[in-house]
Amino acid sequence: MHQPLASIRKMEKIIDKYLNRLISIELNKLPQDIEPEMSDPNQDQNEEWIIWFPVPSKVKDEEIIEFESRLGYRLPESYKRFLKFKHFYELQISECSFCEHPVNTWRYSLSEMVFDGYPRELLIDKGRIPFANWSDWGLLCFDTTKEFENQDYPIVLWDHEISDEFEPRYSDFESMIYKLDKEVNAS
């Protein structure tokens, strides 16, 4: 099932709004190596904090299929569109900080969050796929234990202090983006 173009554009506009906000307040700097395609070409690369810019995604369907095979689950279509929209190092909307998504190492970053962040038996082995941090105490996860059309799993919040509980938060990824944006605009 394909999403209407207006729905896709709405999600993309929200993502761009928060990426552009990072740039406008000059928070698009990190003390680490930055992919050459994403780094500021005018900056001295010997500086400690390197400026990065979001760039159009180069994620291919084959890469997503390969990642899904390793994961053992299909990803929601709306999340696949998210992966195929922009590369970034940081993206925060409300309390949600998305897993970094650099050009050449996005699968490594996502794999690290899913398989190496917390013990597997607490999350992925229970059918919860983490994709973003929540504040400084939890993770947002796709809940694959609930069947939905097009793998559009509900989103649950996992508190690392209460490892056996998953709080239902959002009905799906796309509506989560809209609701997070509304939370920011309401405050």
Task: Please provide a written account of the structure.
By secondary structure, this protein is an alpha+beta fold. Helix content is 34%, strand content 19%. It is built from five helices and ten strands; from the N terminus they run αβββααβββαββββα. The chain has helices at residues 5-24, 61-71, 77-83, 106-116, 173-186; strands spanning 29-30, 50-51, 55-56, 86-87, 92-93, 96-98, 128-134, 138-143, 155-159, 166-170. A six-stranded antiparallel sheet has the order 5-6-7-8-9-10. The protein has a two-stranded antiparallel sheet with strand order 1-2. A hairpin with a 3-residue loop joins β7 and β8. The longest helix is centred in the first third of the chain and has 20 residues, at 5-24. It is globular and about 50 Å long. It starts with a helix and ends with a helix. The mean pLDDT is 93.
What is the overall pLDDT average? Answer: 93
Tally of extended strands?
10
Order of helices and strands: HEEEHHEEEHEEEEH
Q: Give the uncertain stretches in residue-range form.
A: none
Main structural class: alpha+beta
Largest sheet composition: 6 strands, antiparallel
Shape: globular
Gyration radius (Cα, Å) is: 16 Å
How many helices does DSSP assign?
A: 5
Topology at a glance:
Layout: H1 5-24, E1 29-30, E2 50-51, E3 55-56, H2 61-71, H3 77-83, E4 86-87, E5 92-93, E6 96-98, H4 106-116, E7 128-134, E8 138-143, E9 155-159, E10 166-170, H5 173-186
Antiparallel strand pairs: 1-2, 3-4, 5-6, 6-7, 7-8, 8-9, 9-10
